[in-house]
């Protein structure tokens, strides 16, 4: 403890180098303590640049690095510090992940911490003594040599002793079958910013994509009575709460993805909170299953959150209404395939919108539209046959996300024409050209399980 006490300066003091060294030690310790006091995870990587071309041949060379070590020491090379010497790691790297560490000898109060050779008492010193010429900036500009202590940064690999060092695992590498040494792209080091760990940014953007896509799906399931007016049904309560949860999370996640200078812990808390909220809509798992933040290895945590959230959003509140893609073969004909997973009890609906107006659509589509198997459709058109009958739904089923301007028609499933559609698992649709600016959607409501 005494090694970090403040020097008592007084008049007439016979000053020696120990006084100045103790003053430096006191202030450096104060700065390190302040840094570590900013939060439980206020150390880690800020930026890292590795020469990938040299690495391919087994030479590890860092061209730039900025970080705060676990003891609060600031490293900024090459701006403030010397980059660690490059080294050959070919013999240390195999087909499995090998960790790369930035190491600095610990500060040893009462021992020699600075040397010209880098060693003292059989130990690696924290600093290297260097002679640097400085100008007198406040006088005549005369130069003078000054001895400075430069941090002696080193690169270590798994299997090498890290005793007596403060370290950060900055990267992982492996050897490919062809012999090349490569960085493991999905490794995320302890980091002060998301951008210092690209794997975390990639996981975050993957999570954002999943949330945005699911929110879009839920938005399309909403029913609208008129433009801008949303219809709430009693069985839609869970849907709207989930949509509200997702829409509330999207701006924050998008901000972290757009500006990845935030601390990974902040993004973790936002994602973990969202996972916990979404768990309320499912029956599998509890909030206790959410992985805790691991600053030493954040990559697996973010990946687990992404996979967990993706699984939850795919399984909770599944919509019984699915849209079957239709190919537009001409201005008047459409074709689609019925998915095999849709059983015989599935109900099918045709949604029709046209600039001709909803009244014309609702009254004339059942009389003039023709639906059959794809192969039968040309015969129905040429012979003016009816095909599968359509029944207009003044009020569409609750499972359908009804939209204003569309008429909804149920396909009758009791005719021979429909049986041919089921056997071939495809259908063709003909709408006369008098229905201008036509838009169709084929919807299926799956049987309740």
Explain how this protein is built:
The chain is α+β, with helices and mostly antiparallel strands and 449 residues long. It contains 9 helices and 25 strands. It is 29% helix and 27% strand.
Give the helices and strands, then pairings.
Elements: H1 17-36, E1 44-50, H2 52-56, E2 59-60, E3 62-68, E4 74-77, E5 87-88, E6 98-105, E7 114-115, E8 119-120, E9 123-124, E10 127-135, E11 143-151, E12 154-157, E13 165-175, E14 181-183, H3 198-221, E15 223-226, E16 229-231, H4 237-258, H5 264-279, H6 298-315, E17 321-324, E18 327-328, E19 333-337, E20 347-353, H7 358-368, E21 370-372, H8 377-383, E22 390-393, E23 407-411, H9 416-424, E24 426-430, E25 439-445
Helix pairs in contact: 3-4, 3-6, 4-5, 5-6
**Helicity, as a percent range:** 25-40%
Mean pLDDT: 88
Number of E-state strands: 25
**CATH-scheme architecture of the largest domain:** Sandwich
Give the end-to-end Cα distance, rounded to a whole number of Å.
70 Å
Helix-and-strand structural type: alpha+beta
* CATH class categorisation of the largest domain: Mainly Beta
Poorly predicted tracts of residues = none
Name the strands of the widest sheet in spatial order. 17-25-20-23-22
Biggest β-sheet description: 5 strands, antiparallel
Number of helices: 9
Query: Shape, please?
Result: elongated
C-alpha Rg (nearest Å)? 34 Å
